[in-house]
Amino acid sequence: TALETRTEGWIAGLQLAAISVQGHQDATRFIQSFSGSHHFVLDYLLEEVLHQQSESVQRFLLHTSILDRLCGSLCDAVLQDSAVSGEASLVYLEHANLFLVPLDSERRWYRYHHLFADLLRQRLHQSSTLIEVGAVGDVTELHRRASLWYEANGLELDAFHHAAAAHDVERAERLIEGKGMPLQFRGAGAPVLHWLESLPKAVLDARPALWVTYASTLLFGGQPTAVEQKLQSAEAALQRVALDDTTRDLVGRIASMRATMAIILHDVETIITQSRRALEYLHSDNLPVRTATMYTLGYAYQLQGDRAAAHQAYTEVIAIGKSFGESIYTIAAAIGFGQLQEADNQLSLAAKTYRRVLQLTGDPPDRIACEAYLGLARIMYQWNDLDAAHQHGQQCLQLTRQMDSVDTVVSYGLFLARLKLTQRDAAAATAILGEAEAFVREHHFVHQLQAVAAVQVLTLLQQGKLTAAAHLAQTHNIPISQARVALAHGDPSAALALLDPLRQRMEEKGWQDERLKVMVLQAVAHSMHGEKEAAVQILGDSLALAESGGILRVFIDEGLPMAALLFEAAAHGMMPDYIASLLAAFEAEGRTSESKPYLPAAQSLLEPLSQRELEVLRLIAEGFSNQEISQQLFLALSAVKGHN
User: Fold this and answer.
1) How far apart are CA 350 and CA 390, in angstroms?
2) Sign of the CA dihedral 150, 152, 153, 154?
3) CA-to-CA distance for 637 and 643, rounded, in angstroms?
4) Each residue's pLDDT tens digit, 335-391
5) In whole angstroms, what separates CA 519 from the centre of its chain?
6) Residue 474, Cβ neighbours under 10 Å: how many?
7) pLDDT, tens digit, for every residue of 100-129?
8) Predicted structure pTM score
9) Which of 505, 571, 503 is nearest to 542 (CA)?
């Protein structure tokens, strides 16, 4: 039968291919390059398959070969021949076994076998050289028709592919811009960039918007160093055209990209200047770029420490984003929003925001999710769920490994070092911080130097290296670190002299997280100074700030001096449930510290507690009265009170 004849011919073709492979030393490479251009397959397909079909079927096969996938209505749009039904033709080809592969169970979509498609496309291009442009069979016209069908059916990326193949620059440019969100922001960066790279400079100069698109595609494709040259080319092209709404919008887009590039360098002044210029020039309807610009402005405000302005900018980004769908910028704004909630001690709200970000980034998560995982890790740390903190930190690390120039690497290092300090592993913390500092200096992330130094001071104090800690705190001018060093030297007066004005500044700025840290240390300093009443009062204010966020570690990390203060506060009847949870955390910390009494990360007691005093402290933490402690330890009641 005809089918058997075709099958025998196909087998013969494959046998010939096998013989050819034997003659090639690199068989794998030969097989990978195997295509319809090889003469034995080409001859078979031409003589035994294509030429055996009717003229109308041959025309259908050739004209639809431009398509990577086929359906009836798409074939109708490409052929534009009322005498031929696309759907009926596909049914015939499948039944005739003409190398048609179904792509779904309903058999609505098909593709040609790649070898057969290679042959058809070669034949089509050979024959089209003799056809007048725009006539039936002209390849560019076939691509144009396919592009029209794909766009009408909401498949803009496929529409762009065929517009590019048709060399229809105007149409391809319009399709890239999309309806509200450019294609390169929707996962099509590679094909858009490939097309732009293929265009002559004269074509790009005639259309300044293409230069801008070229720059944005490079920027979001991870090639920021190549962006500025394209922006300058766009500006040069713009000088040759009149300034109208369209060209003004291009000026705004250029400024927005420069603001985004300045984020990489944490250049606050440039970010703000270029963002404001962008908002001035951008068209009011250009919501995607306006959203991007509002985000960069919010990021600059956050770097400056103007949290209120950053909060307002991020809120606007998220609100605008809802009108045209989530984008990379609305997700980034949500992360910034979570960081502000975290800084405001609203940890439950921040955790909810970060989890929402993880939902938006998908599964597997996008790299931007690393900041959400790190935020959750910090929150779990403050909630004293160290296992969960470590787990979220590891998820952050997996994503940051995919990037090598983001300061999340540093932030993760600081978090991990703090985690190591809770395990009394100062050596590991030192190594981690050394790597973080090297990364900061290599990438010029100057704004992170103080944060690294602050944790280095904690590490040095845990090791008893007071001189080195004092030098580091002084070099980087970190008042709270200087206060910790003063306490470690037994000089609470010097510590309070630093902490009192620092607290006032934090209150003026509205920085609740920093205010809480200062107040906790103030309470310890007043206690060491013998001012118990003032210490308990400040501790009570600190607890009131921290309770709604469920914050524990900011107290636990201060060690035994804080535990003693909490007992004092409990004796005054302050916040019994919250203090009970803190004392229970102290007790658990003591049981897991390798049989060593818990000592603070920031300082050790000048007069370490005796074993008997530790036993009394443990029983107090368990809720025993003085009389009960007296009976358990066989001590006189007065001795127990003396230990207290």
Assistant:
1) 18
2) positive
3) 10
4) 999 999 999 999 999 999 999 999 988 877 888 899 999 999 999 999 999 999 999
5) 34
6) 12
7) 889 988 889 999 988 888 888 888 888 765
8) 0.74
9) 503
